[in-house]
Amino acid sequence: MAYALYILAYPPRHRYLAFLFLCAPILYAFKYHLSLTPWYSLNDTFGRMLYIWLAYMSYAFLLVRVTPDVEPGAGWRQRVQWAGKVLYTRHLGEYHTPPVTHQACDEEKDEEQAMQPASEIGMLRRRREPPHRLNRLDLCLRHAAKAVLFLAINHTYDTYLIPPKTYPPAPFIRHLPSSLAVHELRLRAMMTWNVCIGDMLYFESLYSVVVFVIVRELDRLLERSPVLGEVLA
């Protein structure tokens, strides 16, 4: 993580070589992630986080090629703060600053903008619209309700749907081949829920908890990250 912040804050000349150095510890951790703790679910979640995060870094660092959008002569604190926002943002385009090309390209761009209506020019220069206009209390209540709802859904599934007694054999299942027995169908349904739906609800609930804590206790209006959206005072 520290190395990722460093290469984002101070982009090296050879980006692919720097990314190769980043892959080395990630691959090592992924190879032994199942032996990290005695709990398989925790280890599996950590392993997924590793390759998802590495894929995001490859997209932001190699494809989009983000560069620090800071003031000239900015110190390392401002650069690291910008790099941290890039790591956790859901809208990477806000931190992408296209490189300055030849002056002729700028003149062509000015001519194209001059030919466009004023309303379209304003929309091009305008940043992404905020996803909501909620005040602090409404945002906290909404995320608290979402976290409780998603955790309740997962708890209901774990408590009432996983036990075998809740899976009575349906008539059409009795006529299926032995390769598609009730037990196998149940295991496949459980895997689909756990990998796709259950994890999505779990991580969304964790995101809501983090938003609730930051906005309610730690956040300041002037330093709110755009990952949380614009919130009215």
TrEMBL record:
Q: Which UniProt keywords are listed?
A: Membrane, Transmembrane, Transmembrane helix
Transmembrane helix listed as a keyword: yes
> Which superkingdom?
Eukaryota
Q: Membrane spanning segments where?
A: 16-34, 46-64, 193-215
Name of this protein: Uncharacterized protein
Q: What species is given as this protein's source?
A: Didymella heteroderae
